[in-house]
Specification:
Strand order of the largest sheet: 1-2
Order of helices and strands: HHHHHHHHHHHHHHHHHEEHHHH
Shape: globular
Helix content: 55-70%
Largest sheet: 2 strands, antiparallel
Radius of gyration: 22 Å
Length: about 475
């Protein structure tokens, strides 16, 4: 993985061949370091394969994402930006976890090689997240992900051919949608440079842009196209592969897909009506609906784009966007958040408890997408929800201890854990960035982004002393 990352580090310079690349040396040094770490690792671990146990997979997953985030920050740290190590690590972590929070400003005049690297980072992170969902998290039984286990989630010799076939299908779908996004943006009025960058970050639901205005500098048509691609990136990619192999209709029969699309249909419609009723300025239905749909989709899918400062739309909008940060996309997508299926499982448990109050002797079965939901999955999901809220509390308290106001501390902690991107308020809201925060806060938020991307429990279990006992 580190050697592959070093190859990607050369792409900004290669893609800008013939143009000015003021940070070429920074990318060359970063690629050499990443490649050296990869080769050293292969040399030290070249031996007879051992049995792959869950403990090894936890260590591999957590350590690889942390080291990749560290290596990804090198081009920022070694560049002409002259930023601190905390800023560089925050930007690299935000990129590889597809969070989209940034400490950088003046993006419109920033060196193009750095802007391309930010987009490539999010694109790499997007496909990495999908692969982790398909192969790793169900195997580790983290946060209820066992519900989506397939034969391709089992690390056995028998399952490896299926895993390879699924991996190739996922990569093909991901690359195809990325190319379609780039071409669509180009023909809708973006420059090739902007189309390339936004095409990569839309499908990855990352949210990095080439302008301080984010997507606000583009037309309503482009906003609607971006909305479509953000939705695509937030749907289960393995269902696209099944559709491609002739299992037509499986995408829209999926329970989480149906609820996810319902939320994106109902919430923007109601919010547009609210804005129409309270707006003190002339209301333009088409433009306002496009902007509302775009920004709601950006938050729900944890992409992090913004076309305007939605925190200024009124108190109801402010509160609603805060709670939308929790939602996230579908499992098996590039989106972050708590994921739709966990809310659906919570409703199933609630219904079951209510039925038991009415009929104590009733024999009830739990079904989700036609599959039985075991007690193990329910307990895992409840544990995830508890540890998520506990981490949200601890990070908020830590940020508040650094003299950050309540809105900044709470929304910053939430946006990090859910990988949304912008927070709320004047500092880290859609009109600001994370640059003014103290370095200590950036380290804490970087850790929060990694924990959120790894479903939190994968990291927390490694903090338990029992984990390291032989």
């Amino acid at each position: 993985m580190f050697v592959l990352l070093s190859i990607f580090m050369t792409l900004p310079v290669i893609l800008l061949a013939g143009s000015e690349t003021p940070n070429a040396m920074a990318f060359a040094e970063s690629a050499a370091i990443a490649c050296g770490v990869g080769i050293l690792g292969m040399g030290l671990t070249y031996r007879k394969p051992r049995e792959l146990k869950p403990r090894y997979m936890f260590v591999l997953t957590v350590s690889s994402w942390f080291i990749i985030a560290l290596l990804s920050s090198l081009p920022f740290y070694l560049s002409d930006l002259k930023i601190s190590a905390a800023d560089a690590f925050f930007e690299g972590t935000s990129g590889i976890t597809t969070t989209g929070a940034t400490v950088l400003s003046d993006l419109d005049t920033m060196d193009k090689d750095l802007l391309i690297w930010r987009s490539i980072l999010q694109w790499i992170g997007g496909i990495g997240i999908i692969g982790m969902f398909v192969a790793v998290l169900p195997f580790l039984r983290v946060g209820g992900m066992r519900l989506f286990a397939t034969e391709s989630s089992e690390w056995t010799d028998k399952a490896l051919p299926r895993m390879k076939t699924l991996s190739r299908g996922l990569l093909f779908v991901y690359v195809a949608f990325s190319i379609i996004a780039v071409v669509t943006y180009r023909f809708s009025g973006m420059t090739l440079f902007d189309a390339f960058n936004h095409g990569l970050t839309s499908i990855a639901t990352g949210g990095f842009s080439t302008s301080d205005m984010s997507m606000g500098k583009f037309s309503d048509l482009i906003l609607m196209e971006a909305t479509f691609f953000m939705i695509i990136g937030s749907l289960p990619f393995f269902l696209f592969v099944r559709e491609m192999h002739g299992q037509h209709g499986v995408l829209f029969r999926d329970q989480q897909v149906r609820l996810f699309l319902t939320i994106l249909f109902v919430v923007p419609l109601l919010l547009t009506l609210y804005r129409w009723m309270v707006s003190p300025v002339p209301f333009h239905p088409v433009h306002n609906y496009a902007a509302t749909l775009f920004n709601v989709t950006s938050v729900v899918t944890t992409t992090g784009y913004a076309s305007e400062d939605y925190s200024a739309w009124g108190p109801l909008t402010f509160v609603l966007f805060f709670f939308l940060m929790f939602v996230g996309g579908c499992s098996g997508s590039t989106a972050g958040g708590m994921k739709i299926f966990r809310f659906q499982l919570s409703l199933i448990i609630l219904r079951e408890q209510l039925m038991r109050l009415l009929h104590p002797r009733a024999v009830l079965t739990r079904k989700y997408n036609g599959r039985s939901v075991s007690d193990e999955i329910i307990s895992s999901m409840i544990a995830y929800t508890f540890i998520f809220l506990l981490c949200l509390l601890l990070i908020t308290v830590a940020l508040a201890a650094m003299q950050l106001d309540f809105v900044t501390a709470l929304s910053g902690a939430l946006t990090a854990l859910t990988n949304v991107g912008p927070g709320l308020g004047d500092i880290i809201g859609p009109a600001g960035n994370f640059g003014p925060l103290p370095d200590a806060a950036k380290w804490v938020l970087s850790a929060g982004m990694l924990m959120g991307r790894l479903e939190i429990l994968s990291v927390v279990i490694m903090l338990a002393p029992a984990f390291w006992r032989t």
